[in-house]
């Protein structure tokens, strides 16, 4: 059923247009997942506002319902979670379906490895191709018992082990999902769990642990938690997702005459690589107002069209913009000169191989690229032609190529777009309201 849906939706983008006015993008996906997870494990009732009603976060919500947690909503972004406490989850009576969502599967692997019951995590055709040994291996070092299918892929069969022990571990790759899985397992482990990251990645789990009253010690790239601390319910305001804002930031930069305001966007410094990269390319970006809500920084952003220049992307910005490269490649194709990205091999194991799939799509629109094992070289300034692009069911590829139409010479057709609903429900209507000529069939 979902595979039929995935291959059928096509976006038709008509060239031209500019982005103006004021918009608000849906809630942050990473924070929405974590709000359900920690709210479920807390003592008391957690009220969430601004929750992302996208398929990925809803998959996490449905998993917790199957684990016996009472959750009301979502209704206009409001969710009420009746926490069951650290030890209150119930054995599910079926496999837990994570859909397209790597965040659900990896974080749940850590959390469920520490329960006194067995369960199985499954997902859709894309998710079942993604690497899970990166979470299974370190969890086994904590005493967990998990089995993957061949090649370390899902489904994940978890044999509950309520006696995990703390771990001192250096992550072999920059991954907030793996870090978070280990921190969640660490909530249950005997003693201390000490995780060191090769590069700083998004820290929403650490911030939310603190919000729920679990002490987290952070020194540079090392994070420590001690098992056995209970969580206490706390209200959560989910900010707008900067990864969803990214498409509009790029779209406004590349379409002459654009002047767009984006309200209440999350600007956690572990997520703002997109702003830094666009600024290095010459973008006209302003932070108009900034504030903190529930331990997360937010801002209203204003972006105006301006000619961009190609750059070599600083590698230290890569993990801070990891989900934004499909959009940034569109900006690079419109920029004057060459853009070089390296140190981004992780892009190959996202919802699609985002290096190859973007290179293929850019080529279909007449842009010359050179594919590297860990990045991409894009020759900018040639202008997008007309053509058909395959998104391979990857939401961020589909939305990125929609923005390319703003400065294309002819129509762009984007195939396999239904998964946009995983992270950005209402994308087509919001994009049209802002000035894109886009329709779906
Ligand atoms: C996420 C972490 C990142 C990111 C994903 C969401 C998270 O994945 O790409 O969209 O919420 O922790 P990795 O940990 O695989 O880099």
TrEMBL record:
Transmembrane segments: none
Pathway note: Metabolic intermediate biosynthesis; chorismate biosynthesis; chorismate from D-erythrose 4-phosphate and phosphoenolpyruvate: step 6/7
Reactions performed catalytically: 3-phosphoshikimate + phosphoenolpyruvate = 5-O-(1-carboxyvinyl)-3-phosphoshikimate + phosphate
Root EC class: transferase
Places the protein is found: Cytoplasm
The EC number(s) this enzyme carries: 2.5.1.19
A GO molecular function held by the record: 3-phosphoshikimate 1-carboxyvinyltransferase activity
Binding site for 3-phosphoshikimate: 29-30, 34, 175, 177, 323, 350
Binding site for phosphoenolpyruvate: 29, 102, 130, 177, 354, 396
Enolpyruvate transferase domain ranges (all copies): 14-428
Subunit structure: Monomer.
Annotated protein name in UniProt: 3-phosphoshikimate 1-carboxyvinyltransferase
Organism expressing this protein natively: Ferrovum myxofaciens
Gene that encodes it: aroA
């Amino acid at each position: 059923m979902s595979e039929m849906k995935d291959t059928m939706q096509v976006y038709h983008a008509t060239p031209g247009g500019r982005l103006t006015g004021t918009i608000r993008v849906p809630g942050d996906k990473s924070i929405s997942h974590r709000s359900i997870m920690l709210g479920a494990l807390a003592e008391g009732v957690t009220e969430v506002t601004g929750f992302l009603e996208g398929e990925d976060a809803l998959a996490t919500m449905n998993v917790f319902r199957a684990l016996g947690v009472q959750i009301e909503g979502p209704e206009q972004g409001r969710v009420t979670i009746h926490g069951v406490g650290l030890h209150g989850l119930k054995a599910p009576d079926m496999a837990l379906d994570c859909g397209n969502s790597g965040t659900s599967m990896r974080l749940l692997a850590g959390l469920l490895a520490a329960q006194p019951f067995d369960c199985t995590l499954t997902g859709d055709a894309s998710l079942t191709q993604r690497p899970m040994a990166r979470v299974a291996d370190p969890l086994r070092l904590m005493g967990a018992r998990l089995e993957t299918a061949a090649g370390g892929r899902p489904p994940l069969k978890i044999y509950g082990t309520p006696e995990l022990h703390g771990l001192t571990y250096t992550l072999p790759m920059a991954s907030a999902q793996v870090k978070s899985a280990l921190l969640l397992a660490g909530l249950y482990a005997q003693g201390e769990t000490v995780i060191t990251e090769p590069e700083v990645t998004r820290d929403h789990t650490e911030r939310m642990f603190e919000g729920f009253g679990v002490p987290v010690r952070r020194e540079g790239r090392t994070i420590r938690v001690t098992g056995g601390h209970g969580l206490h319910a706390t209200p959560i305001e989910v900010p707008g997702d900067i990864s969803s804002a990214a498409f509009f930031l790029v779209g406004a930069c590349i379409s002459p005459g654009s002047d767009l305001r984006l309200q209440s966007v999350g600007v956690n410094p572990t997520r703002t690589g997109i702003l830094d990269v666009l600024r290095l390319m010459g973008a006209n970006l302003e932070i108009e107002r900034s504030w903190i809500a529930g331990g997360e920084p937010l801002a209203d952003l204003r972006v105006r069209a301006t000619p961009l220049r190609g750059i070599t992307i600083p590698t230290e910005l890569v993990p801070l913009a990891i989900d934004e490269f499909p959009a940034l490649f569109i900006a690079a194709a419109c920029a004057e000169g060459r853009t070089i990205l390296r140190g981004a091999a992780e892009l190959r194991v996202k919802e699609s191989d985002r290096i190859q799939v973007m290179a293929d799509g850019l080529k279909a629109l007449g842009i010359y690229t050179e594919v590297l094992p860990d990045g991409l070289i894009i020759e900018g300034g040639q202008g997008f032609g007309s053509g058909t692009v395959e998104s391979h069911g990857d939401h961020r590829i589909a939305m990125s190529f929609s923005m390319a139409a703003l400065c294309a010479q002819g129509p762009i057709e984007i195939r396999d777009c239904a998964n946009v609903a995983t992270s950005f429900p209402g994308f087509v209507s919001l994009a049209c309201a802002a000035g894109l000529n886009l329709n779906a069939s």
